Amino acid sequence: MSEHFRIEKATIGDVPQIQDLVSNFAGLGEMLPRPLAEIYEHLRDFVIVRDRGRLVACAALHIMWDDLAEIRSLAVEEDWQEQGVGILLARVCLEEARSLGIATVFALTQRPSFFEKLGFHQADMMALPRKVWGECFRCPKFPGCDEIAVIIELRATSSLKR
Ligand SMILES: CC(C)(COP(=O)(O)OP(=O)(O)OC[C@H]1O[C@@H](n2cnc3c(N)ncnc32)[C@H](O)[C@@H]1OP(=O)(O)O)[C@@H](O)C(=O)NCCC(=O)NCCS
User: Where are the beta strands (DSSP E) in 35-147?
Assistant: First the structure.
């Protein structure tokens, strides 16, 4: 499966395509939109997949605190879905969190079952640290959040669920 695509760190020229990909799904209400400025600011968070130079998938690992990071902006173009790209991108983010020594990774998602395959479990959004809520005030959906919090404890996991 993974021989069909390669995961790379995003570069500055990828930013408009990352925004387009995320905006398409955001327009369908499936994820949050990200302003260009925010993607530039957090570019080093992003990993991407290209198909002949065209960006077809992305994901970001955003560090929140010494023990907490978020997987955000995980998106796979429709034609590339159901081929393991999303799972692999999420795994790369988790491996990076692990290598950085981060204990807990969370995501806010409408696809909790996708993350549960990776060993995440659903959590009470209110149980997440206040730092997370700081971002919520900027969300266009606030206060009517329709996302589910999922969380994984990395130190307690000897190897990521396959
Ligand atoms: C959620 C999303 C990232 C998943 O990406 P994906 O590349 O399709 O994910 P995968 O292929 O790794 O896994 C998706 C499903 O296909 C299955 N699958 C994986 N490899 C497969 C293969 N070779 N053949 C058939 N199915 C496969 C997985 O088991 C999984 O099953 P599920 O639908 O029951 O969860 C993608 O649908 C997407 O971009 N959605 C819109 C944005 C979004 O919701 N983002 C997530 C939260 S922020």
Answer: 46-51, 54-65, 68-76, 104-109, 121-123
Q: What angle do CA 56, 149, 50 make, to 5 degrees?
A: 10
For ligand 1, atom 17, the nearest C-alpha belongs to 82
For residue 148, the surrounding DSSP H or E stretch is: strand 148-153
- SS3 string, 19-42, reads HHHHHHHHHCCCCCCCCHHHHHHC
Spacing, Cα 22 to ligand 1 middle (Å): 15
Closest ligand 1 atom number to CA of residue 109: 47
Q: How far is CA 62 from CA 59, 114, 125, 135, in A?
A: 10, 19, 17, 12
List Cα–Cα distances, 83 to 36, 107, 127, in angstroms.
Answer: 28, 21, 33
pTM score: 0.89
What CATH architecture does domain 2-153 belong to?
3-Layer(aba) Sandwich (3.40)
Per-residue pLDDT for 161 more than 90? no
Nearest to residue 151, comparing CAs of 91, 114, 108? 108
pLDDT, tens digit (0-9, with 9 covering 90-100), for 2-20: 457 899 999 999 999 999 9
Beta-sheet pairing, 104-109 with 121-123: unpaired
What are the two backbone dihedrals, phi and then psi, of residue 9, each rounded to the nearest 5 degrees? Answer: -70, 140
